[in-house]
Structure formats: structure tokens, C-alpha cells
Amino acid sequence: GADVLEDARTTYELDRRHVFHSWSAQAELDPMTIVGAEGSYIWDGTGRRLLDFSSQLVYTNIGHQHPAVVEAIQRQAADLCTVAPQHANAARSRAAQLIAERTPGDLDQIFFTNGGADAVEHAVRMARLHTGRYKVLSRYRSYHGGTDTAINLTGDPRRWPNDYGSSGAVHFFGPFLYRSAFHSTSEEEESARALEHLEQTVRLEGPETIAAIVLESIPGTAGIMIPPVSYMQGVRELCDRHGIMFIADEVMAGFGRTGRWFAIEHFDVVPDLLTFAKGVTSGYVPLGGVAISRRIGETFDHRPYPGGLTYSGHPLAAAAAVATIEAMEAEGIVENARRIGEEVIGPRLREMQQRHPSIGEVRGAGVFWAVELVKDPVTREPLAPYGGSSPDMAAVLAECKALGLLPFANFNRIHVVPPCTITEAEARAGLDILDRALETADAAVAG
Ligand code: PLP
């Protein structure tokens, strides 16, 4: 009613006066106010309902306000809000067990953090201490977080203003056939050439200086480029040959997003360290962490790990993780993500690609899809330049919102990343909106 609208206006005004937002020029912001959410939907400050095809920042994997998780957080709050990290606690022990049971191979010890970036920071620190080496290799077209080491490992423009030249990060090109750095014309060629390029990078940087290679199992914000199985297995083999630790960053791709518990399962590869956050609690309470293999765990059996944080394994977050994982298991949420991807999103996006000249490529798995928009399907000129936006791109996004869909976008791409719980009917409704909105983009296509 009128009260809600009035409150939303106050919220907006206070936000503009006092809230300093991530990654933004503060005076140029116009944030959407969100006053409520349930399942796959959110309500904005004008009382309008939008279908959340962004899962916020790709993390509400069980949808908004899942009753079992809300209740578990309430129960934990009533029982015991907090204990310091040096003590044992039921919620933390159980969360670590449930995560360790689902991570691949012998990744059976869990170090909890507050989010994804600090998970990456700690994974890198563990790899450095374990190997006694300093450099870390990561790919261009990646995102690993906003803190110092994580942002310098990141391969996108957000790194540039944060690079003071002392991070130890070295970037290489990963496989991405649609915009191949290797002039490849097939997936096999791209995989082989990208591996050869990485091999040369390792050789020329000096293998004995490299602590780790960190890769998103499937790069997320950078474009959901699914690497070839042979590539990921080749990276594992390369790491083994040179004593380099393989860190799989599953912050975005983990916890059901790709139709598996972890995206690394698509490649039958066991990393030495695995970072997670986001989906582990669906973001209801902030939580991240590192799953640690025995090999690296051994290093810290009798040598103190020089790192920690006040809220490591915070009971409210741990209780949210336990309830999230149990709900995902009980309700077949990972299987739902896989089925929706295979039966609804994938086929429909491929069909749309036939009709929309603005769609250059669609790719993805589960509820993790990218629609790459172009001005020209032959030259593949993107609808917005790398690192930027464009009036054409802004127009498509505005049209999605006007039609009731909250999209996730990066540069020239729209990502279809709804909750893993999305129903077939909701997925179809959202794709219908995207289909209509893309007519705006088609108008920008040359010829
Ligand atoms: N790693 C990946 C792959 C991510 O997608 C993100 C966030 O989007 C991060 C790390 C950083 O996580 P956080 O924002 O929780 O620090």
C-alpha cells in the first residue's frame, strides 16, 4: 500500500545520502529498491513484481526466503548466535561435514571465511605456504573477488586500478572458442592450443616460482565459457608435473548452479583446493570457504596455519549452510537445475539464436547460461565493448525490466542465471520476456 511506497522512497533517499556502493561512481547511481522477495520473484519499491533471472549476484540458488532455511537461522539465533572460531560448535561441525561429503576426492577439511574473495585469499596463502613458491597463474576473462590478491588474480577490468605490480599474479588465455585467442576453429584445437599456451607460460615464468594455477571451474561473470574436458584434465596433469597446486574457484559455479554439486565434476578432475561461497547458504547469511585436500592439509598438521578471522564458521552462517544443503538434497534442487538447463533453457536459447541476429552465441549448463549479444554476427563485434556498456545494451536491459524480468548482464552479455529451484513455467515465462526484449537488440544489428 501507500506506506510501503513511502518507506521505499525514504529508503532510496537515505541510500543516496549515506550508502557507498560497490564498484560505482556514487553520484551516478540509481539503485532499484527491493522491498521483498519470495522464491523466484522480487518486489521493487513501486510494488512491482519481477522474475529474478539474476539470483541477485548469482547466489540465491534455493530461491528467496526458503522457509526451512529461514527457520533454521531463526532457531540457531534463539539457541546460540555466536561462538569464537577456536571452539567447536554443532552447526559448524555439521556444515563442514556436509560440504566435505560433496566436494570431490580427498577435499575433506573445510576452512570457513565470510565470502568468496577471502576464500580465494586463503587458498592462495595455503598454496604458497605448501609449495614455498609465490606466483599464481590465472586466466584473462575471470573474476576471483575484490580483495587485494583476489582482484589481482581477476582477469577483468576491475583489476586494472588495483594492480600495483606486487601481487604475484600472472595471466594467461584460457579456452574460449567463440573469441579464440588461438585462431582455433574447433573445440579440440582450442583445447590443445590453450594447453600449449599455458605450458609455455609455465615454462617461461619458471615452474619452480609458481605456487598455483587458479581457475573458475566454469568462468562465471566473465562469460560462462565451459572449458573442454581435455583442457581441465590437461591443467591437472600440468600442475602434477610441476608441483603446482590446482585451485578450483567454485564461488559462483558451485552448489548446484551447473546441475552438479560442483562444476569441477563435469571434468572428472580433483583440485588441490576448492573455494566456495554464494550458493552454500544461498547468500541468506554470508559464508565462504576453502575445501582442502589431504596433501595440503598435512602441511598444517603440525605447523600452525598463519591465518584466520573472527567469524570463521559463524554459527548463524553454518546453520544456514546446513539447512540449505539439506533442502537442496531433500528437494532434488541440483537435479532440477540440470533438468531445467537440458530441457528448457538450453533448447529455448538455441531456438532463439536462430531467430535473433543479435545473438552471437549461447552457452551454459544447468541454470548457468550466457547469451552473447553482437552488432554483427559475422565479425562478432560485441553489442557493448569489452569492459563497458552501450546504449543498445542498456536498451535491452531496460526492456527486460519493463516487461517484468530482472536480468544479469556483463558488458555485451545477458546471463540467464535464475535460482536452481526455478519451475519450468517460470523459466519459460522469463525466456519469453528475454525473447521479446531481444527485438530491441536485433534493431541494432548491421544490415
Ligand atoms: N570467485 C568467483 C568465481 C566469483 O564469482 C566471486 C563473486 O562473484 C568471487 C570469487 C568473490 O566472492 P565475494 O564477492 O563473496 O567476495
Write the layout of secondary structure elements.
Elements: H1 2-18, E1 34-38, E2 41-44, E3 49-52, H2 55-58, H3 67-79, H4 90-102, E4 107-113, H5 116-131, E5 135-139, H6 148-153, E6 169-172, H7 187-205, E7 210-216, H8 229-242, E8 245-249, E9 273-276, E10 288-293, H9 294-299, H10 315-330, H11 333-355, E11 359-365, E12 368-376, E13 381-382, H12 391-402, E14 405-406, E15 408-410, E16 413-416, H13 424-442
Parallel strand pairs: 3-14, 5-6, 5-7, 7-8, 8-9
Antiparallel strand pairs: 1-2, 2-3, 4-10, 9-10, 11-12, 12-13, 12-16, 15-16
Helix pairs in contact: 3-10, 4-10, 7-8, 11-13, 12-13
Bound molecules: pyridoxal-5'-phosphate (PLP).
Structure description:
This protein is α/β, with parallel strands linked by helices. It folds into two domains: 145 residues, Aspartate Aminotransferase, domain 1 (Alpha-Beta Complex); 263 residues, 3-Layer(aba) Sandwich (Aspartate Aminotransferase, domain 2), CATH 3.40.640.10. Helices cover 40% and strands 17% of the residues. Strand 5, helix 6 and strand 6 form a beta-alpha-beta unit. The protein is globular, with a radius of gyration of 22 Å. The mean pLDDT is 97. Pyridoxal-5'-phosphate binds next to helix 5.
Return Rg in Å.
Answer: 22 Å
Low-confidence stretches: none
Average of pLDDT? 97
> How many individual domains?
2
What ligands does this structure carry?
pyridoxal-5'-phosphate
Question: What is the percent of helical residues?
Answer: 25-40%
Helix and strand pattern: HEEEHHHEHEHEHEHEEEHHHEEEHEEEH
Number of helices: 13
Strand order in the sheet with the most strands: 4-10-9-8-7-5-6
For the secondary structure, the number of strands is 16
Distance between the termini: 48 Å
| Portion in strands | 15-25%
CATH class placement of the largest domain: Alpha Beta
The CATH topology of the largest domain is given as Aspartate Aminotransferase, domain 2
